[in-house]
Design goal:
single chain; 431 residues; 6-stranded parallel sheet; binds uridine-5'-diphosphate-glucuronic acid
Length: 431
């Protein structure tokens, strides 16, 4: 099938590559000419495991091309995916300016019947507005259908997620358009949910915000564990073994960050308010999330007698492992708190350091996990990169001023840490 994907970010690029891998003829459109040049040369502007290898293979196979021209994109695609960003705007509302700009371009260049698909996370009613933009621009109604097909892939595991989705949601008010998309997705052999467009748009927000609520729930339980001496991992295991609850997204830690959960919680809260519903549960989840990192840093401050004159090592800066994305990363919050109180910071991340350096050029970025410990009064583990699990704790202990680890993601076991002679404090346990 001839497929066009507009937007080559964390969602658009992996999605396009998976379509190409399935044998479709894929053309990506991105306005950013520098990005287009990089992709044509087989280079990936983001850190996402496996993407570069698949890009090179797809370029070699001739099934993946990229252009800055929407005109070319519209000539090419029978199906055109919109996968541009919908960041947080004013009042928590999703900023849809990129989507509207693409819709106007589509209206300008559409030249044959096209199925226009929203992959970006968009509020209920966005499909209706895209339709209206095209009609207002004089495009005949028989020339297009607008379908919602939300994406559920996660950063860091984008390719396996896109190759093996647990469900495919198609929101279409026209059966023929839905069937065309089913044909495209058929080789993935995933369960398909066909529904109306508005329900599909809401499914995406409901899913992401439910995940945020689930994490905030276990983080609220973690606060109780810290007071009563229970262990949050044991509680999560015990709860999660009930298939009605499930054990995923019950990892207590510093809270949820990233480019999706925070903005989607804010956006759904605004959508609910506009509909006259006060979504208190969502607001509470947000509040728990706000408090989580602050509380953790306060525990550290209490333990070491304030940060003035202290050196703190940070392990991990990305909002989660296997990405260089730092949007709404907990590391940024922590850096701001530590800086405000006069700490010296030594930070390390395998992929995201340069992105943080652009915001905080005044802290020290080191080249290995071990070096964060040089003369440090404590280490905070912020992001659970795999390499931290095999850190040489004996050597780390030898270069630190005080052998203290604050584990924000429950990566280490108390036994492992205490055997190496460290004091150990983690989320959801006394200490
Ligand atoms: C999230 C959703 O999981 C995807 O399904 C969705 O497609 C994506 O948003 C999106 O809308 O594009 P992502 O933001 O990549 O994916 O990352 P997650 O794996 O969901 O993690 C989000 C945050 O929650 C991270 O800060 C992570 O550290 C935190 N988290 C996750 C926990 O604190 N505990 C957990 O048990 C799981």
């Amino acid at each position: 099938m001839k497929v066009t994907v507009i937007g080559t970010g964390y969602v658009g690029l992996p999605t396009a590559l998976v379509f190409a891998d399935l044998g479709n003829d894929v053309l990506c459109v991105d306005k950013d000419e520098a990005k287009v040049a990089m992709l044509r040369a087989g280079q990936v502007p983001i850190y996402e495991p496996g993407v570069e290898a698949l890009l090179r293979r797809s370029l070699d196979d001739g099934l993946f091309k990229v252009t800055p021209s929407t005109d070319e994109g519209m000539q090419h695609g029978e199906v055109v995916f919109i996968a541009v960003g919908t960041p947080q705007g004013d009042d928590g509302e999703a900023d849809l300016s990129a989507v509207w700009a693409v819709a106007r371009d589509i209206a300008k260049y559409i030249c044959h019947y096209t199925i226009i698909v929203t992959k970006s996370t968009v509020p209920v009613g966005t499909g209706d507005r895209i339709e209206q933009i095209l009609v207002d621009a004089g495009v005949d109604r028989s020339m297009f259908d607008v379908v919602s097909n939300p994406e559920f892939l996660r950063e860091g595991t984008a390719l396996p997620d896109a190759q093996h989705p647990d469900r495919i949601v198609i929101g279409a008010d026209n059966q023929a358009a839905a069937h065309k998309l089913m044909e495209l997705f058929a080789p993935l052999e995933a369960p398909v949910i066909i529904t109306d467009r508005r329900s599909s748009e809401l499914i995406k927000y409901a899913s992401n915000t439910f995940l945020a609520i689930k994490i905030s729930f276990i983080n609220a339980i973690s606060r109780m564990c810290e007071e009563c001496g229970a262990d949050v991992s044991a509680v999560a295991r015990g709860m999660g073994s009930d298939p009605r609850i499930g054990n995923k997204f019950l990892q207590a830690g510093l809270g949820w960050g990233g480019s999706c959960l925070p903005k989607d919680v804010a956006a759904l809260n605004k959508i609910a308010a506009d509909l006259g519903y006060d979504f208190k549960m969502l607001q509470a989840a947000d509040e728990v999330n706000e408090q989580q990192t602050r509380h953790f840093v306060q525990r550290l401050s209490d333990r070491i007698g304030g940060f003035q004159g202290k050196t703190i090592g940070l392990l991990g800066l990305a909002f989660k492992p296997n990405t260089d994305d730092i949007r709404d990363a907990k590391s940024l919050e922590i850096i701001e708190m530590l800086k405000a109180e006069g700490a010296t910071i030594r930070a390390y991340d395998p992929a995201a350091a340069e992105n943080v350096r652009a915001i905080h050029p005044d802290i020290t970025y080191v080249n290995s996990a071990l070096e964060t410990g040089q003369n440090a009064d404590a280490i905070i583990l912020v992001t659970e990169w795999n390499e931290f699990k095999s850190l040489d704790l004996t050597r780390l202990g030898q270069i630190m001023r005080r052998k203290l680890i604050f584990d924000g993601r429950r990566v280490f076991t108390p036994y492992q840490i205490e055997r190496a002679g460290f004091e150990y404090v983690t989320v959801g346990a006394k200490g």
